């Protein structure tokens, strides 16, 4: 009988991410091995059984597993049906080596919000062009993981957060079409990336990546109605390619850029209609 094992791996251009792995295993068992990166693991179907630091562990229910770097572990299906998992390998810029000990003691975390955020991170990592969104999501995940490992609450927003938020908005507007990363923005503003995301969301009610995308879509509307071809609009406004542009445009406005430009959506001029709720 043919094996149903399947593996997909890639390296996105997201600071802090070494590799992404999506896999389905029914037969394969990992031998003892080590990584020089943090292994952030969620299991979508089935259960993984593994050994870490001479202790038998597992991934029941909706847990999140965080395996520390340079600590040997293995892994195998706990049932005949196997398992399907999604993994992000993170370097020590997100979680430093001082957290290895707590992660060894408690690698499996029961946290529905954290798991939801990791799922959304994977969705962003899977799409070329959504790297800024992935980076924004990852920085909040890092905050929550550090809170678990230090047995404390997530850090509060920094003092002067509203000023930081406005400074960040100015920078995002300046770099709207060229693209940027949170690491670069944080270096300019001398603030931790997680502080930027929290302060911006608190001040404006929207995360930085969503602000950037909504501003690009807003600019695209005018260009499309002025007659610029969708492919040129996508390139000029910093989208990865035209399908990337089309996907985000349709998510915001409920129609494709081409139909919007022709004014054929629902049989009336789209340009005169109220924008869809965001």
TrEMBL record:
Residues 256-278 are annotated as: Disordered. It comes from the Bacteria. One of its GO terms (molecular function) is sequence-specific DNA binding. Residues 256-270 have a biased composition (Low complexity). Keywords: DNA-binding, Transcription, Transcription regulation. Residues 166-263 form the HTH araC/xylS-type domain. Coiled coil: none annotated. This is AraC family transcriptional regulator.
């Amino acid at each position: 009988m043919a094996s149903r094992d399947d593996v997909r791996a890639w390296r996105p251009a997201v600071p802090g991410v070494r590799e992404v792995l999506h896999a389905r295993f029914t037969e394969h068992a990992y031998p003892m091995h080590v990584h020089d990166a943090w292994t952030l693991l969620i299991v979508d179907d089935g259960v993984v059984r593994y050994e870490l630091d001479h202790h038998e562990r597992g991934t029941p229910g909706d847990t999140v597993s965080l395996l520390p770097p340079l600590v040997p572990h293995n892994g195998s299906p706990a049932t005949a049906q196997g398992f399907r998992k999604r993994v992000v390998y993170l370097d020590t810029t997100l979680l430093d080596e001082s957290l290895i000990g707590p992660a060894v003691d408690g690698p499996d975390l029961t946290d529905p919000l954290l798991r939801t955020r990791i799922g959304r991170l994977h969705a962003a990592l899977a799409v070329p062009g959504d790297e800024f969104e992935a980076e924004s999501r990852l920085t909040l995940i890092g905050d929550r993981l550090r809170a678990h490992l230090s047995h404390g609450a997530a850090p509060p927003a920094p003092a002067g957060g509203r000023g930081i938020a406005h400074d960040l908005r100015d920078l995002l507007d300046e770099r709207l079409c060229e693209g940027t990363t949170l690491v670069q923005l944080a270096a300019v503003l001398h603030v931790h990336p997680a502080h930027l995301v929290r302060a911006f969301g608190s001040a404006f009610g929207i995360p930085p990546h969503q602000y950037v995308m909504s501003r690009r879509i807003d600019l695209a509307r005018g260009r499309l109605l002025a007659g610029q071809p969708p492919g040129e609009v996508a390139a000029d406004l910093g989208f990865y390619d035209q399908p990337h542009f089309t996907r985000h445009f349709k998510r915001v406005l409920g129609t494709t850029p081409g139909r919007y430009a022709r004014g054929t959506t629902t049989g009336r001029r789209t340009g005169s209609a109220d924008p869809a709720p965001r």
